[in-house]
């Protein structure tokens, strides 16, 4: 067996071009097309969601202390940082503060969240219940009853009792 000779001339240029193209392709796949955690977009989204989750937790602390205006600010930041589940609690804060229009808006946004139940147990039943209350306070009995019935079907124990008061 003879000793291998290093690439020279045209072979070296062709190898260099192919290697460069391969590395560019690999870099592009890693940065922009990857579906795993190495994708920069995915990493940024995870960082934002983690920040949104921390803000959500701060909002919950204030909510539990009945500081609804302060809690609402954290829930808004949480939503802005990619944690849409916070619409449910922001809507509830707005309900406690008497801002029925905003409460309705955020609760309707909360219904559109696809993974709400994965994030918070009883998520949809709570949202439906609060929407029922909002519609009842707005004198929209038809929508109030529809949402309270849905909340009851989803297992919300308060919904049936509240529903009996408005029928």
From TrEMBL:
InterPro entries: TPR-like_helical_dom_sf, TPR_rpt. The keyword Transmembrane applies. Gene3D superfamilies: Tetratricopeptide repeat domain. Signal peptide: none annotated. SMART domains: TPR (SM00028). Keywords: Membrane, Transmembrane, Transmembrane helix. The chain crosses the membrane at residues 12-32. This is Tetratricopeptide (TPR) repeat protein. It comes from Pedobacter zeae.
């Amino acid at each position: 067996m003879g000793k291998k000779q290093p690439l020279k001339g045209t072979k070296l240029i062709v190898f260099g071009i192919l290697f460069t193209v391969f590395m560019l392709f690999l870099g592009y796949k890693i940065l922009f097309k990857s579906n795993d955690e190495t994708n920069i977009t995915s990493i940024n989204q995870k960082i934002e969601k983690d920040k949104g989750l921390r803000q959500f937790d701060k909002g919950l602390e204030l909510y539990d202390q009945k500081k609804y205006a302060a809690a609402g600010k954290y829930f808004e930041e949480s939503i802005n940082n990619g944690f849409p589940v916070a619409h449910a609690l922001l809507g509830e804060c707005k309900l406690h503060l008497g801002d029925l229009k905003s409460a309705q808006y955020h609760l309707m946004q909360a219904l559109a969240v696809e993974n709400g139940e994965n994030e918070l147990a009883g998520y949809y039943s709570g949202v439906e219940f609060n929407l029922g209350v909002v519609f009842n306070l707005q004198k929209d009995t038809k929508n109030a009853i529809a949402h309270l019935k849905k909340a009851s079907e989803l297992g919300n124990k308060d919904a049936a009792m509240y529903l009996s008061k408005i029928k």
